Amino acid sequence: MNDWTGLGKYSKNLIKEFNNIQSIDDLYLLSNKKTEDNRFDLNNIKCESDVFSIKEQLELPFITYNNQIDLFHSPHFVFPVFNFNKIVLTIHDITPLLFSEDYSKMAIMYMKSMIWLAKFRANKVITVSKNTKQDLIDKFNFKEEKIKVTHIAIDDFYEQIDDVQALNTIKNKYNTGEEYLLYVGNIKPYKNISRLLKALAKVKKYNKDIKLIIVGKRDDGYDEVFDIMEEHNLEDNVSFTGFVSNEDLLLLYNAATAFVFPSLYEGFGLPPVEAMACGTPVVATNTSAVPEVVDDAAVKFNPYDVNEMAKSIIDVLDNKKLQQKLSKNGLKRAEKFSWKKTAKETLEVYKEVLNK
C-alpha cells in the first residue's frame, strides 16, 4: 500500500489499530501481488488479481467463500459485486465524478457503477466526512441510515517541534528563506494550485521575498502551473520538492509561516490536520469537507476568488497574534482526530452489520 496516498494512510492506520485490539481473532488482510504487506500481525490472504480489474471481480468471491469470510470491508468504492457475504465499504470522496476532466471515461463509469451498486448491495457505507455522506445522498439517493460517518486521522509522528537548529537546517536544505508558505499534495487541476499561484503574485507585492514550497507529486497540472509561474515572474518564489521523507516533512510543516490549502474539493483533507498538529497556522478553502475538518482553527477563503485568497494569506502573514491564535486552535483541533477512535467506530459498524 502506498503510504503517501490518503487511501494508503487510511488502510495502514486502520489495520495498525485493529492489530492493537486483542478481542479481534478472525481478521484477515487481503492483498494482491503488488500490495502484499507483512508489517502487520494478521492473517494474510493473497489475491493474484490487479486492483480494479475484471479478474479481481471474478476471483474475490472464491477467496471469500473458501476462507469462510462473513464480512468483506473494502477501503474504497470497489467491492466484489458477486459476493454472498456481508459488505462494508468506505467511500472517501467522489472527486472523479465532480472533476471528470482529470480522469478517464472508463474510470468515471466504473466509479458511478460501483457506487450505484453499493446503494443496493452494501450493508453499510462508511464515509470519512459529513460532506461525502451528503454527496452520496444528493447525487445517488442513498438512504441516510445506510451511511456511517467516521472521521479519519493523521499519523502519530506529526507534532510541534521547538528545535530551532533543526528548523533552520530544514530551511537551508530546501532554500525556503525566512518566511514561507507550505502546500502538501498533488497538483491536479482540482487542487487549485493555479489560483494559489495567482494569489501568491498578489502576496508578493506586499512581501517580495515570500516563498511557496510545494511538496508532492508533479501531476498532470504541472505545465499549466509552470506557465503561470512564468507569467507572474514567480520562478524564484516557488519551489517543488517532490516527495520528501517523513522526517523532512515534519520539519517543513513546523518551520512554515503558514500552510495553505486551496483545493476545490476534498472528501476530508489530511494535510490541514497534519499542519495543525504541528502548530502551523492554516489558511484553507471554505468548500466541501475542509470547513468540517478545520472548524475554527483556520482562516478560510473562497477558492475561486484569487483576491480573497491573497487577502487571507496576507492577513495571516502580517498578524503575529492571529498566527498564535491559529496555532493554539489548530493544536486543539488536531487532537479531535484519532485512529484509535476511527478503528473503534469501524468495528462498531462491523458488529452492527454482522448482528443483523
Q: Roughly what percent helix?
A: 40-55%
Head-to-tail CA distance between termini: 32 Å
Helix-strand pattern: HEEHEEHHEHEHEHEHEHEHEHEHHH
- What structural class do helix, strand and pairing data support? alpha/beta
- What is the CATH third-level topology name of the largest domain? Rossmann fold
InterPro entries: Glyco_trans_1 (IPR001296), Glyco_trans_4-like_N (IPR028098)
Organism: Halanaerobacter jeridensis
Keywords: Transferase
GO molecular function: glycosyltransferase activity
Write the layout of secondary structure elements.
Layout: H1 6-20, E1 28-32, E2 43-47, H2 54-66, E3 71-74, E4 86-91, H3 95-98, H4 105-121, E5 124-127, H5 130-140, E6 147-149, H6 164-174, E7 180-184, H7 193-206, E8 211-215, H8 222-231, E9 238-242, H9 246-255, E10 258-261, H10 270-277, E11 282-285, H11 290-294, E12 298-301, H12 306-317, H13 320-334, H14 339-354
Parallel strand pairs: 1-2, 3-4, 4-5, 5-6, 7-8, 7-10, 8-9, 10-11, 11-12
Helix pairs in contact: 1-14, 6-9, 7-8, 7-12, 10-13
Describe what this molecule looks like in 3D.
There is one protein chain. The strands form three sheets. This protein has a six-stranded parallel sheet, sandwiched between helices. A four-stranded parallel sheet has the order 3-4-5-6. The protein is built from 14 helices and twelve strands. Helix 6 crosses helix 9 (246-255), helix 7 (193-206) crosses helix 12 (306-317) and helix 10 (270-277) crosses helix 13 (320-334). With 356 residues, the protein is an alpha/beta fold. The protein has helices at 6-20, 54-66, 95-98, 105-121, 130-140, 164-174, 193-206, 222-231, 246-255, 270-277, 290-294, 306-317, 320-334, 339-354, and strands spanning 28-32, 43-47, 71-74, 86-91, 124-127, 147-149, 180-184, 211-215, 238-242, 258-261, 282-285, 298-301. The two termini are 32 Å apart. The model has no long low-confidence stretch (mean pLDDT 90). It has two domains: 6-153 and 338-354, 3-Layer(aba) Sandwich (Rossmann fold); 164-334, Glycogen Phosphorylase B (Rossmann fold), CATH 3.40.50.2000.
